[in-house]
Automatic annotation (TrEMBL):
GO biological process: dimethylallyl diphosphate biosynthetic process; isopentenyl diphosphate biosynthetic process, methylerythritol 4-phosphate pathway
Protein EC: 1.17.7.4
Cofactor list: [4Fe-4S] cluster
One function term, GO molecular function aspect: 4-hydroxy-3-methylbut-2-enyl diphosphate reductase activity
Pfam families (UniProt xref): LYTB (PF02401)
Keyword 4Fe-4S: yes
Keywords for this protein: 4Fe-4S, Iron, Iron-sulfur, Metal-binding, Oxidoreductase
Pathway: Isoprenoid biosynthesis; isopentenyl diphosphate biosynthesis via DXP pathway; isopentenyl diphosphate from 1-deoxy-D-xylulose 5-phosphate: step 6/6; Isoprenoid biosynthesis; dimethylallyl diphosphate biosynthesis; dimethylallyl diphosphate from (2E)-4-hydroxy-3-methylbutenyl diphosphate: step 1/1
Protein name: 4-hydroxy-3-methylbut-2-enyl diphosphate reductase
Amino acid sequence: MSDMTYVRKGFGLKAEVQDTLAADYTGQLVDMLRAQDYTLHAGQTTVRLAKEFGFCYGVERAVDYAYQTRRKFPGKRIFLAGEIIHNPHVNAKLREMGVVFLSASGKGFDYAPVEPADVVILPAFGVTIQDFQTLRELGCVVVDTTCGSVLNVWKRVEVYARDGFTSLIHGKFYHEETRATASQVEKYRGGQYIVVRDMVEAELVMDYIEAKAGKPTPRPPLSRADFLEKFAKAASDHFDPDLHLDRIGVANQTTMLARESLAIGAAVGDAMARAYGDVHRSEHFRTFDTICSATQDRQDAVVELLAEPLDLMVVVGGYNSSNTISLAALCGEQVPTYHIADPDEIDVEANAVRVRRVGPHHHEDEIANWLPTSGPLRVGITAGASTPNNKIGQAVARVFAIRGERVDTSL
């Protein structure tokens, strides 16, 4: 792509769109919480906000560039590959601005509607090598908002493939970011990857490695056929566990639970040492922590908040937001946790809330009388990296409204 058709640093229109962004996404209650040591009291109700929450730099940049793109090309058709971020409110705003969302088709997006005169925005998650090549051939203007933390993982996976290592990626094989990351191995002939969702799936890989070396395993290992069936959607097209688990480099989707990513990396390395010895591990295994700093900071802030006495946690963010799901999982280990996509999920009049249940089944449910209406109540709140401040503030306001408490909004 020429410099005229590929844009990665915006259009220099940040000042022009700043007022619109502020009107759409800032929140007074959040400012108040910050100013008062992240705490608001009213009557018998206390709300504590985690000290790191909401929009991260990568998300702010992606949304900013999307708004700049609309300002730069008022007369052009603008398409977006998937969702800019995993937040329903932000994506709805872009639709209102006339941005057309392209749907996924197989392993990529359906670019059939796109013509050379159009503009395509790439989301913060990035797109696959195949998607990028398709856009290159179309010759349209491409505005790339891929997060820098994601690009760092891509570089790591690319190096693994260059050096003949299979990338073992802790992530969700269907997630846009993980699909884009996995595709980086295709820059080198014979590049391979396998995606594990959690430690349970990582253990299947470890058992296979140790069994192939003739070592005893804590669980019956999968046969080759069963292994290939299990990871059919989560491995490269020509992946062979008998060939491609000899040299492994660990990476991860940037928004996963950090402690689990680190644990998986350490466990896989230990399994290789048990199978073939420490020398083999040192030469055939690599691992790096590729969790982004914003994800880590938000998880650390939740751990700090949970050290205080709380009656419940509210986590605000899209139901398909991986980093929000990780926050909800952390909270759910210690206190009743309510993961809501948007403050509209809280019905003040009925004292009901629609939530995404914390756990492996990911179903949504409506809960009646979720807040006690009398007596002391301590509520913690946090939000995923794709949640704007105004939505956090609206959730706080609805908690106080259910309790019949009035918040003094004068700073």
